[in-house]
Specification:
single chain, 3-stranded parallel β-sheet, 3 strands, 24 helices
């Protein structure tokens, strides 16, 4: 009888463990599958080639010199290139290996977001937040790209997790706050976008909780730890002339970039028209019109979520168990968005969704709150119960829209990025020994990566007197192959 009772007890315990951990395990498994799916199907593209160039050096000094001398914003996110160089020396240079370096932070972010939401809210809330991250087309896209954004999202998530003790009202010693200070300093090394997120986090903490002594206990050690990176940023050329390191590939005004960034964060940049179509559009309305049903669905989902959020955080926030948390994450979202807009205006940066990744972090934690608005007035219980059901459908619709966007990314070639792999193979197989080839505007490192070491590079070649200029560079070769990348940039020169 005793052994039978113990067997039943073990069975019940195992069932409880399965019931408790199966949902989050399934979400993490799904997120992992989506981030590994067809990982090497597409060629490395222009931006990924830059990452290779900036991590090619044999020593830290070589990589730092390449980073410092490069125009653009890469010098403001040095941590990724240092770690990528170490990773390549250990794991190799295959497409799978170097992209795996972005996949792993993407997977880890799902777990950390879950832990944050569970610590601050509850299990159901945490599962929804984890699902939003796991299915996010935006997160999947950058988890498969050899660029810093997946790592930066992980660092922001880790910083928020270590800070969640302050939001939970836990009394901790200054010594216990040191891990947060260390991670904040590492985040400053991770990039200026993480500096913006840290500023938004600090401002939101002060505005919502209004405990100045506690605020200084959290943020003064973090500020001191991050001081070396602040000095580094101030020493860069962009500190005196921010626009000198910026680009504006889409050529859109800031308010349109803001709309595009929100769109990309919510459903990924492969949901509507392909980016190349937008860049080359003479009339933007003609490009967007065929996707009117897509945008209408997104508008319905977005407006439903926004209205539900306003109802939850505004009309019926009093008496809400998580009111201060909801207020904090809403404030963090708004301040993050405003600081991103200010950064875009000051630097004239091409404000893309990837430059706003930190905005999505508070949003995915806040959105599940709309599912449990509980008014005290019984007369409103029925309408708000209906609103809760609609909100749940909207959240499900958001997940489905992201999966649809990822479907485009995986299977529709119109949304694929630069195909250096095919270009290199074509040039190698088609070019005779006496023939020459030249690359205009691109990343020659990628042609070399895929086995073409002969193609000449002339990225700054003007389109004026093009034929004569190419003939001079190739020393009058009879047959010349011309490869052009970043056509939208070349045509403006």
């Amino acid at each position: 009888m005793i052994s039978s009772y113990k067997a039943q007890e073990r069975s019940h315990h195992n069932t409880e463990l399965l019931r408790r951990y199966f949902p989050i395990a399934l979400i993490i498994f799904t997120g992992t599958f989506l981030r590994l799916f067809l990982l090497t199907h597409q060629s490395l593209w222009y931006d990924e080639g830059i990452s290779l160039v900036l991590s090619d050096g044999d020593t830290f000094q070589e990589n730092f010199a390449a980073l410092w001398s490069r125009p653009g914003g890469d010098k403001y996110q040095p941590l990724y290139y240092v770690l990528l160089s170490v990773w390549r020396s250990l794991a190799g240079d295959s497409e799978f290996s170097i992209r795996l370096f972005s996949v792993l932070p993407g997977i880890a972010s799902i777990a950390i977001i879950y832990l944050i939401a569970k610590r601050l809210y509850n299990e159901r809330h945490a599962l929804w937040s984890a699902l939003l991250i796991a299915s996010s087309a935006f997160c999947i896209y950058y988890s498969q790209e050899v660029r810093p954004y997946s790592l930066q999202f992980l660092l922001a998530s880790l910083q928020l997790y270590l800070f969640s003790g302050a939001l939970h009202g836990e009394k901790t010693s200054i010594l216990a706050k040191l891990p947060f200070a260390v991670v904040t300093a590492v985040n400053f090394l991770g990039g200026v976008l993480l500096v913006v997120f840290s500023c938004a986090l600090a401002l939101s903490h002060l505005i919502i909780y209004r405990r100045s002594r506690e605020w200084f206990q959290w943020w003064l050690p973090a500020g001191i730890a991050a001081l070396p990176m602040v000095i580094y940023f101030l020493s860069t050329p962009g500190a005196s002339n921010p626009a000198s390191d910026a680009t504006n590939g889409l050529g859109l005004p800031v308010y349109k970039n803001a709309i595009f960034s929100l769109y990309g964060l919510l459903v990924g940049i492969t949901y509507g028209p392909p980016l190349d179509t937008i860049r080359n559009a003479g009339n933007l309305k003609e490009v967007l019109l065929p996707y009117f049903p897509h945008f209408l669905i997104l508008l319905l989902i977005g407006s439903t979520l926004a209205i539900s959020l306003l109802i939850h955080t505004g009309l019926f926030s009093k008496g809400n168990t998580y009111q201060s948390l909801d207020d904090f994450f809403l404030t963090l979202f708004l301040i993050s968005f405003c600081l991103a807009a200010i950064l875009a205006v000051v630097t004239k940066i091409n404000w893309m969704p990837r430059h706003s990744f930190y905005i999505y972090l508070p949003l995915c934690i806040l959105l599940p709150s709309i599912l449990y608005t509980r008014p005290k007035h019984t007369s409103l219980s029925q309408p708000l119960h209906l609103m809760g059901q609609i909100s749940r459908l909207a959240l499900i619709g958001l997940v489905v829209a992201n999966l649809y966007s990822s479907y485009h990314y995986f299977f529709d070639s119109n949304y694929w990025r630069d195909d250096y792999r095919s270009a290199a193979q074509y040039l190698v197989n088609s070019r005779e020994p006496a023939e020459e080839s030249i690359l205009l505007w691109g990343t020659p490192r990628l042609l070399n990566y895929y086995g073409d070491s002969k193609t000449l590079y002339q990225g700054t070649l003007s389109s004026e007197n093009l034929a004569q200029n190419i003939a001079d560079i190739t020393q009058g070769a009879d047959n010349i192959f011309v490869a052009v990348n970043r056509e939208f940039t070349w045509l403006r020169n």
